[in-house]
Design brief:
It is a single chain. Helix 1 packs antiparallel against helix 8 (about 250-290), helix 2 runs parallel beside helix 8 and helix 3 runs parallel beside helix 4 (about 110-120). The strands form four sheets. A seven-stranded mixed β-sheet has the order 2-8-7-6-5-3-4, sandwiched between helices. It has a three-stranded antiparallel β-sheet with strand order 9-10-12, with helices on one face. The protein has a two-stranded parallel ribbon with strand order 1-11. Helix 4 links the parallel strand 3 (about 100-105) and strand 4 (about 125-130). The chain has twelve helices and 14 strands. The chain has helices at about 25-30, 45-65, 80-95, 110-120, 140-145, 170-180, 200, 250-290, 315-320, 340-345, 350-355, 370-390, and strands at about 10-15, 75-80, 100-105, 125-130, 150-155, 180-185, 205-210, 220-225, 290-295, 305-310, 325, 355-360, 400, 405. It is of the alpha/beta class. The radius of gyration is 22 Å and the shape is globular. The protein has two domains: about 25-265, Type I PLP-dependent aspartate aminotransferase-like (Major domain) (Aspartate Aminotransferase, domain 2, 3-Layer(aba) Sandwich), CATH 3.40.640.10; about 265-405, Aspartate Aminotransferase, domain 1 (Alpha-Beta Complex), CATH 3.90.1150.
Length: about 400
């Protein structure tokens, strides 16, 4: 069993894409619902159930307000974004199979979307996996070309968890609506980080998660626009309007609601602060480290995301050499894999560059001093690792173009 480090000795946390610490305000909001207000919101005959029900409905309103849903009734609570994605994909597929069996998604979606799509293919559904460009963008024209007479669902993530690229959902949503195709987005990495307006984006179904936005783990939500009827995948007591059976996780739902309230309150100021920190980190690394390149779109990206490849450096070796920083090479869901990221390969990177990529995820707890410290540590460690590599040849003239945020190296 690992000993818990003291607060002062803990590494600098820069893995906020994987999970976020629960906000103190969120913890305070949740605590009464573990022991004092412990009722089941489905219990209608006494005050314990009424108190719990009132709390869950208040949280439902907070979620709806954050994403600008037309009504709180369009919010379904789930066990997290993975369940929300599965319910969205399979719920639409089974609920609308009488209209067709064609689904459109992209090659860089989260596995919580790709795996249900793969399973549906074994059941007679046809899935089109759209390619992305060098920045990870899905071209709206490619979506338009892929839509067929039997297309029932388009599922595209709002932002990618590895490279932070923001997709043009509003344009794609308009195409889907004009052709009467249901449009789903996995917005787990976007909600609470950037403006997420379901009406402006023209999405019909949206997945989100509590632990990606300083709420608790094990709770999420699915926005389902009024008029879209999904086939449930969990059957039982008929909770959540029959879409998701099971006793509601009241403390978790209360925490999710509070996290949404805080995100709505602080969104604009935190976006500006994190963008400035991200740019400082980017510029510092590109000035100090030769043969480095930023992966993903240079401007259409999350304010707290940086994915950067350091040539001639194995990302796993770099992470192991830096116990002072909590980092990852990519999605936490695939961190046990020794294979290069399928997301980075889809952008056209070589396996070598994909295996040299590090993902930085900044958050509320990070400071300018921490960013400068991370730059120093990363630059020093890369110098040591490259000196040990028989393949590394120092560039003759810098090799870094900081203004373009990429190194002048071949893909």
């Amino acid at each position: 069993m690992l000993a818990e480090p003291s607060v002062d000795s803990r590494p600098i946390y820069m893995d906020h894409h994987a999970t976020t610490p629960v906000d103190d305000e969120v913890v305070s909001a949740m605590l009464p619902y573990f022991a004092q207000n412990f009722g089941n919101p489905s219990s209608t005959t006494h005050v314990y159930g009424a108190v719990a029900r009132e709390a869950t409905e208040r949280a439902r309103e907070e979620v709806a307000e954050l994403i600008n849903a037309a009504s709180a009734d369009e919010i379904i609570f789930t066990g997290g974004a993975t369940e929300s994605d599965n319910l969205a994909i399979e719920g639409v597929a089974y609920g609308f199979s009488h209209r067709g069996k064609h689904i459109i998604t992209s090659a860089i979606e989260h596995k919580a979307v790709l795996q249900p799509c793969k399973r549906l293919e074994t059941e007679g559904f046809r899935v089109t996996y759209l390619p992305v460009d060098q920045y990870g963008l899905v071209e709206p024209d490619s979506v338009l070309r892929a839509i067929a007479h039997d297309t029932i669902l388009i599922s595209l993530q709002y932002v990618n968890s590895e490279i932070g690229t923001i997709q043009p959902l509003d344009m794609i949503g308009q195409l889907a609506r004009e052709r009467n195709v249901i449009f789903h987005t996995d917005a787990a990495q976007a909600t609470g980080k950037i403006r997420t307006d379901v009406r402006q984006l023209k999405v019909d179904v949206l997945s989100l998660s509590g632990h990606k936005m300083y709420g608790p783990k094990g709770v999420g939500a699915l926005y389902v626009r009024k008029g879209v009827d999904l086939e449930p995948i969990l059957l039982g007591g008929g909770q959540e309007k029959g879409y998701r059976a099971g006793t509601l996780n009241v403390p978790g739902i209360v925490g999710l609601g509070k996290a949404c309230e805080i995100a709505r309150r602080d969104l604009e100021s935190e976006c500006k602060r994190l963008s400035a920190l991200r740019d400082r980190l980017t510029e510092g690394l590109l000035k100090r480290v030769a043969l480095a390149r930023v992966n993903g779109h240079p401007t259409r990206r999350l304010p707290h995301n940086l994915n950067i490849s350091f040539e001639y450096v194995d990302s796993e070796a770099l992470i192991e050499s830096l116990p002072e920083i909590a980092l990852s090479a990519g999605s936490a869901c695939t961190s046990q894999s020794k294979e290069p990221s399928y997301v980075l390969l889809a952008l056209g990177l070589s396996e070598r560059l994909a295996l040299s990529a590090i993902r930085f995820g900044l958050g509320r707890c990070n400071t300018t001093e921490q960013v400068d410290r991370v730059v120093d540590l990363i630059a020093s460690s890369i110098e040591q690792l490259r000196n040990l590599s028989p393949l590394f040849m120092p560039p003759r003239s810098g090799g870094v173009d900081a203004s373009g945020l990429t190194a002048k190296i071949p893909l």
